[in-house]
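Quick start: what a row looks like.
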Amino acid sequence: MDLSNPSPEHVALLIDRIKTKLKMANTEILQADDFSLDDYAELYDLYTFIDSHSSFSVGEIEGILDELGRLRKKS
């Protein structure tokens, strides 16, 4: 599956895979609807970074979550 093309379905898949890879306990804090297709390229880049690593330091996880927070749509 080519995830490099933006679509709502791909956003949902990326978010699900990110939550799984980060082993997030509270998965409800990240929802695909919170992200805009306008930021898909950045979300995809973040996903490829996360997917290329087998583990993360606490600092890396904090940085990843900060970046996800920055990419979320403003309410």
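That is the whole record. The chain is about 55% helix and 0% strand. Helices lie at 8-21, 40-51, 58-71.
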